[in-house]
Amino acid sequence: MSEDANPFESLQSQIDDAAAHLEVDDDVLERLKHPERVLETNLSVELDDGSLRRFTAFRSQFNGDRGPYKGGIRYHPNVSRDEVKALSGWMVYKCAVVDIPYGGGKGGIIIDPREYSEAELERVTRAFATELRPLIGVDRDVPAPDVNTGQREMNWIKDTYETLENTTAPGVVTGKAPDSGGSAGRVEATGRSTMLVAREAFDYLDIEMKGASVAVQGYGNAGWIAADLLEGIGATIVAVSDSSGAIYNEDGLDARSVRSFKNETGTVSGYDGAAEEFSNDDLLTLDVDLLVPAALENAIDRELAEDVDADVIVEAANGPLTPGADAVLTDRGVHVFPDILANAGGVTVSYFEWVQNRQRFYWTEERVNEELEEIIVDAFDALTDTYEEYDLESFRTAAYVVAIQRVVDAFEDAGTFP
Ligand code: GLU
Fold first, then answer.
1. What DSSP character marks residue 300?
2. 197 and 148 share one domain
3. pLDDT tens sequence across 356-366
4. Shared domain check, 175 and 193
5. Are 148 and 193 part of one and the same domain?
6. HSE-CB for 77 with a 13 A CA cutoff
7. Which ligand 1 atom is at minimum distance from the Cα of 143?
8. 197 and 168, same structural domain?
9. For 259-311, how does the pLDDT look when each residue is reduced to its tens digit (9 = 90+)?
10. CA atoms within 13 A on the CB side of 355
């Protein structure tokens, strides 16, 4: 990883860029750039063959000024302490930009889940949940799914916590299956916010969505739902990719049928509706109206950014642009709508799930989607108002200006203890 691509340094430079437009004391700013605490633990887990394997896991609690720490847990071989710290910080500002009452946290285990059986993954997850137990809780820290985790893992964490605490506490994690206290609409929520932000962005920039060409990098939960919903509002999905490569069809790919193909075969490559296949980097530099990076951090670096040919980028992934790429794209006049707004649907519906768990009263999917739309559209309007009022260079800086001010206000209202 090159020097400018350390995600924790990216987070800190994003905070610095925004703080330059705010009256925030340096000592308060220093607080906003570092996590409050990070758990690093080594889990010893028995594999199916009886051997013991060590897995390193982290949970970073970045900032709790606005409410319980909130954020997902990812399973990936590239998880690192700095990555988890950065992701936990992004959660703070994401929750603040959509104005939901949470701080930010994030967890991860260094593991390639494809190499383990379901029983092994259950033991790994329960071992991590046991380590997390003193740190988490409905009013303390509320994990959720992230890359390579979903309802199954959340159900295991909830069950481990409830068993050890001898209670029922469905709100200790979000993103659960509906029968375990999950919310309608949670699975689709991240991609739904990406679609809503793209729709609002096109409207704001006066670009027609009908017939707009879209490329989506990453075809997991966020990417494929965004593609499907964008297709639903008239866009043409010309290219999608996953780690196996990219598929392209100028006349449009059918988002759902690509998803069924990927479910059956494990990849998008080989899909018979594709006219061409190429690499992920080729997809990222396609001449399209809208590019949606929906995979991992640092998908676009400074060099690749010079070749990006999209008019608008809406970030479904967390941190897909390095700071170098961000600077190049801003200079080149590409409109980038940042992750902390464009994928905030996930945590927003997690918030709805938590509210429903606390009340033990469940909403319809229609209500979830309506309330989500209101929150995302209001946040979009606050962001564009700030962009204009401060005459800012990018929508990302505008999002951080809004978010940092809210966190600073909460901190200053409360004062310091002890
Ligand atoms: N992992 C998601 C994110 O990065 C969701 C977090 C949550 O629901 O707490 O926003």
1. B
2. no
3. 999 999 999 99
4. no
5. no
6. 5
7. 9
8. no
9. 999 999 999 999 999 999 999 999 999 999 999 999 999 999 999 999 999 99
10. 13
C-alpha dist (Å) from residue 52 to 56, 132, 259, 267, 334: 13, 21, 36, 31, 50
Domain end residue (candidates: 142, 160, 180) = 180
22 inside domain: no
Q: Domain containing 310 — which CATH number?
A: 3.40.50.720
Specify the amino acid at residue 201.
Answer: A
State how many domains the chain has: 2
Q: Are residues 300 and 321 in the same domain?
A: yes
Confidence of residue 2 (pLDDT cuts 50, 70, 90): very low
What CATH number is given to the structural domain containing 176? 3.40.50.10860
174 lines ligand 1 (CB under 6 A): yes
Query: Is 345 a pocket residue for ligand 1 (Cβ < 6 Å)?
Result: no
Please give the Cα distance from 347 to 212 (Å, whole number). 28
The single-letter code of the amino acid at 241 is S
Is the domain of 195 the same as that of 332? yes
**How many other C-beta atoms are found inside a 10 Å radius of the C-beta of residue 130?**
16
**Which listed residue (70, 94, 106, 158) is catalytic?**
106
Name residue, tokens 């929906």.
Answer: 294
- Is 182 close to ligand 1, i.e. is its CB under 6 Å away? no
Concatenated DSSP letters for 151-214?
HHHHHHHHHHHHHHHTS--GGGSSS--GGGTPPTTHHHHHHHHHHHHHHHHHHHHT---TT-EE
Residue 216 included in any domain: yes
Peptide bond into 418 cis (omega under 30): yes
